[in-house]
Structures are given as C-alpha cells and as structure tokens.
Amino acid sequence: MAEGAVKYEEEFILSSRGSKLFTCRWLPRHRKAKALVFLCHGYGMECGVFMKGTGIKLAESGYAVFGIDYEGHGRSEGRRCYIKSFPDLVNDSISFFKSVREQEEYKHLPRFLYGESMGGAVALLVHRKEPRDWNGAVLLAPMCKIAEESKVHPLLQGFLIKICSAFPTWKIVPTKDIIELAFKDPRKRREIRQNPFIYQDRPRLKTAVEILLLTWDLEQRLDEVTLPFLVLHGEADKVTDPSVSKALFNSALSFDKDMKLYPGMWHGLTTGEPDDNVQLVYGDIIEWLDKRTNTTFVEGNAGLPTQSSVETKIPKQHIEMDIPCLQYC
Length: 329
Description:
- Helix content is about 35%, strand content about 20%.
- The chain is α/β, with parallel strands linked by helices.
- The protein has one domain (about 5-320): Rossmann fold, CATH 3.40.50.
- It has a 9-stranded mixed β-sheet, sandwiched between helices.
- Helix 8 (about 240-250) links the parallel strand 7 (about 230-235) and strand 8.
- The longest helix is centred in the C-terminal third of the chain and has 21 residues, at about 275-295.
- The two termini are about 30 Å apart.
- The relative contact order is 0.14.
C-alpha cells in the first residue's frame, strides 16, 4: 500500500480500578477492514512503539489492529512493570477488546488475538474466559513455560515465593539480560534499549511470582485450548521454551491448529531478527489470517466449533519447519 494508507490513533481509557490505560490502533485508511486483530504485548514491552511494525504490516494487509498497554507497562499508569494480579491484566484486556468488538462498524467482523511472549499467555487466558468469542489466535513464542536458560534456581524460586507477600514490589529477582537473549539483530537490539517505554530493570518480586505461577498453570492446562491458532517459535529461543509450543500444538483440542518452527531464530521473531527473517514470519502470519478471514467466517457467528464438534471432528494438524535466510543466524 502507498505511504499514508494506514491511519494511526491513540486513546487513554480507564480500567475498572480507575487506572489510565494507553490504547492504540492501526486502521486501513482507504478500505474497510476485513477483520480485527487485538495485540497482547510481552513482559516489560508496549504496543505503540515496540509493536508499531506489526500494526502497520497487518493494517496494510487490510486488518484493523488494536493494542493496549497493561497497567504498569508502556504509557499506562501504575508502578512500572508491577503485576499485582494477572487476572486484572487479563480483565483489562478483555474489557478493551470487547468495547471495540461491540462497535457497530466492527461487530460483524472476524476477530483474532495476537500475542507475543507473555502476551501469548495473556491471549490464551482471554480465550479461556471467552471461549466462544474468537475466530483464532496468532501466538509468537508464547510464554507457556520459561526456558531453562532464563529461570532462577528452583531453590531460589521457593524462597522468592515465600517472601513475596512481604516485599512484592522489590526489584530483587536475579535474571539474565532478556533483551540480549531475545533480539538477534544488534541494530534492532540497540533501538529496543533506547525505547523509553520498555522496562529494563530487574523484575519485581510479585511480578516474577505471578509469571511463574501463570506458566505452571498454562503448562498443565494446554488441553483446554479449543480455538483455531497458529503458534510460531524460533528454535534457538532462550527466553520461552519451544518445546512447550510443541506441547501446546499436540495437547490443544483445537481442530484447526498450525505450528511454524524456525531453525536458528531467536525469541523476537518480528522485532529482533534480520529483515529477511522478519518478512518470512509476517508472510506466514498474514497467509494464515487471510485463509481464516476469507473462508471460515459466517456473518454474525464467531465461527468457533461447538463442543460436540470438538469431540467428534478429527483435528486438522499442520506443522512446518521453515528454513529462513540463515546467513545472519
């Protein structure tokens, strides 16, 4: 699409607790949107700048894209990167997404969740609370389990959980440099470090415990996933564990599920890889969305299987191993 074909807007909304939350959207300027995509960003990240490339790319392909910065993240109010309650974070996302879906111009369009890293976990929890409301999800390196390279020692985990209630906001959790581990391209890594809206300090104690408990829960309940999904993971990811994306693919009851594994790619598939690799990943995502937008949606119906169809239909399973341009890997 030509320059200026994407319209970008920002808006602050109030959470149920009175916190001001930042939201943004990328819209096709010269044509009606064919579907809605709702962004769920990762731990310490934000939507307006960090996920700008995704918003533009999808809007150029005809999608209306909406993002929200969680409380304490990005430009939203709250103590920086302090997750006191994961259910609050999920409910804030659901409230915003629902407010968009119910608008007259959008309420008959297909709707998809799009989650990166911890945002993949958020997307799965949104689906768990709204199992009938989504046409599908795109999950990039979803945080269903933390990779061993990024974990603290099990004995230390137990100690941190015990003292969490006394010092919930303390930044005392030892961790490796996630930006260094997640984003391969040095130039893009520098740009991410220069983003003032990205949290780059040590994790707060309560935040780390919430994420740990969340991943334990998700890993044990992968068979509760029933919506169509595409999961994408770099095989060299040292932040979230690619094996759990494989477990999600194998365990989910979804009858429409696809998985893409990228040899040599790291955690930041669309934000930290060389440009050729990024375009490969976006191509896979847009192809998957287009097929489900153009062929599976019936107006007025989310297009999700009934419980009986989940039980009786043979799952459609499709797994691919893509060989990207590896000269940079």
